[in-house]
Structure formats: structure tokens, C-alpha cells
């Protein structure tokens, strides 16, 4: 997955076959985020999930926490294909 860094955040969009697949992905990401103690800002519309990552307690900037969670999310997405 390609993440872009704009406006002090990492951004990516993930596409799935349908809403159920997208929601299942969000559930897996939620568990990974909770384990990391780092939570995404995201939206879901039908089969698309948009995620933004930034570290709020570091002044809303991109930190190693964001890159680590992005890498974990990429692994979860790769597992759906």
C-alpha cells in the first residue's frame, strides 16, 4: 500500500469487494491499533476505508508510531488479497 504524507499525517485508502470485507478489515485494524496504543482517524463508505495517522500527543505530527502502525495495517491488508 502506498501511504502519502500530507498535512502532518499519513494517509491511505483501501478498497475491498464489499462492505463486509471492509468492516472486517477495520475490526482487525482496531485490534492492532489498540495493541499499539495508537488509534487511527478513519472513514468507511461501502467498500472503501480511508485512514489517516498522526501522533496527537506529539503535536499532531507523523512519528515512528505512525509508520509502525501503517506497516501493521499494510500487512493486514495484504492478508485480504
Automatic annotation (TrEMBL):
Top EC class, one word: lyase
Keywords of the record: Lyase
Presence of keyword S-adenosyl-L-methionine: no
Pfam families noted in UniProt: Pterin_4a
Superkingdom of the organism of origin: Bacteria
Record GO biological process: tetrahydrobiopterin biosynthetic process
MF term (GO), any: 4-alpha-hydroxytetrahydrobiopterin dehydratase activity
Catalytic reactions of this protein: (4aS,6R)-4a-hydroxy-L-erythro-5,6,7,8-tetrahydrobiopterin = (6R)-L-erythro-6,7-dihydrobiopterin + H2O
Protein name: 4a-hydroxytetrahydrobiopterin dehydratase
Amino acid at each position: 500500500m502506498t501511504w502519502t504524507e500530507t498535512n502532518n499525517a499519513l494517509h491511505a485508502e483501501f478498497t475491498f469487494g464489499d462492505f463486509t470485507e471492509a468492516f472486517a478489515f477495520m475490526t482487525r485494524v482496531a485490534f492492532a491499533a489498540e495493541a499499539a496504543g495508537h488509534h487511527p482517524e478513519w472513514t468507511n463508505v461501502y467498500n472503501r476505508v480511508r485512514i489517516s495517522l498522526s501522533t496527537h500527543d506529539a503535536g499532531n505530527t507523523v512519528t515512528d508510531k505512525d509508520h509502525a502502525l501503517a506497516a501493521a495495517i499494510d500487512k493486514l491488508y495484504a492478508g485480504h488479497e
